Amino acid sequence: MSLKTRRLLCHTRSRATGAVSGLDLLKAGREAPSGTARPSASPQEDEGDGSVLACAGCLQPITTAAARIEVGGAHEHTFANPAGFRYRIGCFARAAGCATVGEPSTAWSWFAGYSWQVEHCSACREHLGWLFRAEGHLFHGFVLDSLVEVEG
Length: 152
Hints:
The protein is mostly beta strands. The chain contains one helix and ten strands.
């Protein structure tokens, strides 16, 4: 599948209006589209691995496996927000296919000394994770289940 091809996943739609509700999206669950795989949680042994990690919703290229980094001693972290929702995130140095939303905040930051902003896919607006910033350093914390590894 070409990276330029955009294919939306089928989501459960309301029978009455045809609209997709947030609850329906949560219930639908997502399998990786054919020709893709969920990214591994830890960095590859081959540091030159430049395989593309794309939005699971629309296959927009987001980052690469080579952009994986460790923050706080690990690439992968599991956190819960104040509402109790748990997220398994991976840390990445670079990302081109996403956009930040809202103002930076330090409230409830998972990384001490860092502010955060929500990041969405720039193509389909799917929530992908957060941009974390501190004095002289920034990184992307992406929800690993929101990315798929696209075969070249």
